[in-house]
Structure formats: C-alpha cells, structure tokens
C-alpha cells in the first residue's frame, strides 16, 4: 500500500497522537511519520519489513513504540533520546544486543525483547527503576550476569532460552515477583535456597527443564516460597 493509502492514518494521528500502520510492507519508516513528531505518542509499525530505526529519536514525545515483526538487527544509539518512552516492543526481530544509551530510557515500564538473538542478558536493563515487565523469552541466553540485584522488573520472562545458571544475586532483585523459566537447561541445583527463601518471588514457572517441577518441594526455602504463593492466590480470589 502506498503513501496515498496511509494519508487518512496520518491525518487521524495528527489529532489523536496515535498512529497504527502495521502490516503495510514498509521497508522504512515513512517521512510523513516524522512530520507528526510534535503530536505522536503511540506508534505501531509492526509486521513490516523495516530494517533500521535510525531517525526514531526525532519522535521525542513517544510513549509507546511497537516495531515487532520486522527485519531489525540493531537499535540505534539515538533511541536513548526517547526519554518519555514507557513501552517498547521489538520482539520478533534479529537483535542481539542493546546500545549503551538504552540505559537512558528511565521511564520504560514494559520491554518486549522476545524472539530475537540475544546470547547475553542485556546489562542496559539493569538500573531502569520504573520497569515492570521484561520479556526476553525465546532467545539464546545461557546464563544471568551478576548485578541482577539492580533489575527492578516485577515480572521477568526468560522462557525458551538455554539458561543453565541464574547468577548469584537474582534473589536480591527488589521487586521481582513472577519469574518464568520454562524450557531452559536448568538443573535442580540452579534453584538456590536464597531464591526461594529470601526473594519476593511468589510465582516460578519451570516446566521443560532438567528436573520435574514437583522436585522443588524438596528444596530448602520451598516452604517460604509456598507461603508467598498461597498468600497471593488468596488475594486474587
């Protein structure tokens, strides 16, 4: 679909601040999008064939950016200028690392990096104090680094990776309550007593690892974890 077919979308976005132009076979972000820089708060350009986001920093008031299911291999360092960004979805691309400037995105609350090519946990995610959800599922991660005590998400999805080690200080993550670890390479000894006993985690999903989930009940710290789980379930019902 050509630019003429998108004209109505742009006109509406100039009034609403919301532009949705997914699934239009776009190979780059149309220049007309940047003409909306004073208005655009929510941009969805998912399901296209976009290769780079080089000019994305021109959209300085963006709060939500969805570029999932494109052909992006790396994010530009200028993305760190999107200081108002609260939700970023770059899932289903070919990204393997984040630029250092990503640490500047201090207002991010939801970060979707799933279905990419990350082999290492991006340390740029550490220290983002407002983040609530990080999704790194379906990548190539093998371990978690030290420093996870500075990971502030309440929910961390690491399912469908190749993780065999959870690092030494994950239990110190100050707000972590939901930890998804399905389909990794974890042994039972990877689930440390401190993770069960001393963390704030109330839900761990571990199907598809090198042990049966029911074996958790034999571990030191399981009773404390079970109490948190039971408490949260009671609050939900």
TrEMBL record:
Keyword Repeat: yes
Lineage of the species this protein comes from: Eukaryota, Metazoa, Ecdysozoa, Arthropoda, Hexapoda
Gene3D superfamilies recorded: Ribonuclease Inhibitor (3.80.10.10)
SMART domains according to UniProt: LRR_BAC, LRR_TYP
SUPFAM superfamilies referenced in this protein's UniProt entry, alphabetically: L domain-like
Keyword presence, Repeat: yes
Name used for this protein in its record: Leucine-rich repeat-containing protein 57
GO cellular component: cytoplasm
Domain Disease resistance R13L4/SHOC-2-like LRR: 38-137
Keyword terms: Leucine-rich repeat, Repeat
Pfam families: LRR_14 (PF23598)
Domain of life the protein comes from: Eukaryota
Species annotation: Bicyclus anynana (Squinting bush brown butterfly)
Gene name, Swiss-Prot/TrEMBL: LOC112046597
